[in-house]
Design brief:
Layout (H helix, E strand, L loop, with lengths): L11 H13 L4 H15 L13 H15 L9 H9 L1
Length: 90
């Protein structure tokens, strides 16, 4: 089957990250895009749901805060609920 060149524009960071992911999966960008397009044909549409954002700004901010807390070594962590309850009640 003959192939034709196609040019697409994508965010530089997305390309870097997805190229690394595809390499781990044993794919190059062209193979991954072809896989996606074939899946579109099989599904007769996009092979995933396209939905509007389901979290409001407050929830997104809380999730971001949780990720920052998780990375902060000064924030104590607990191995079990008993230790957490003791700390909360002290």
């Amino acid at each position: 089957m003959a192939s034709v060149p196609t040019q697409i524009r994508i965010d530089q960071n997305v390309k870097r990250d997805v190229s690394a992911l595809f390499e781990e999966l044993g794919l190059d960008m062209s193979s991954a895009v072809n896989l996606f397009l074939r899946q579109c044909l099989i599904h007769q549409g996009l092979p995933f749901k396209v939905q509007k954002r389901r979290y409001n700004d407050e929830v997104i901010a809380a999730m971001q805060e949780a990720l920052e807390i998780e990375k902060d070594d000064s924030v104590p962590s607990y191995d079990n609920m008993d230790n957490l309850k003791k700390e909360l009640l002290s």
